[in-house]
Design a protein that fits this description.
With 184 residues, this protein is of the alpha+beta class. It has a single domain, classed as Nucleotidyltransferase, domain 5. The chain contains six helices and four strands, in the order H-E-E-H-E-H-H-E-H-H. This is RNase H type-1 domain-containing protein.
Amino acid sequence: MDEEVIKWAITSLDDFQYASEQFGGCVGGTQKSNLKWEPSDKNHYKLNADVAVDNINGRVGLGIVIHDSAGHFDPQMAEALSLWGGLVLTREVGLWPCHVETDAKVVVDLTYKTKIPRSEIGLVIQDIIQLLANVANYSLRFNPRTTNLVAHCLAKYGLNVEGDIVWLEECPPCVSQAVMGDCP
């Protein structure tokens, strides 16, 4: 066997074991920490965001959770802010132009409307439109969740994590099967 493959396998196993110890496994686990998520003060939303980078497969996963001061959230607002955050990230790291796919049909539909609603989500949609207006060649489209599985798995994993987790230059064990399923 190639030495690089063996080294990669050992590193992946070490990463998996570390994640299992730290987070009690990928699904349903929690961090072993006394730190707990706390809601924002009144009249503010709280945005928790994270990114996962898989340099081997050339992929970036972004997870964002948004709550109001009572710990509740608006799913459409969360989807819109997630899309906006992903666009900001791709712009900042120089990955323009890009093809954007999301399973948030309402958000995609709102970005193509000529009249944006006067609401909190409307403000986010306007920011998305403004970001995309500066890109010469992009696409934004709705795709069902089955074609957006890695992002969905990261978001679902984030429901069971307290605090922030960042993976750089590695594939999070909790989505490795989904990433491999996306590979040609």
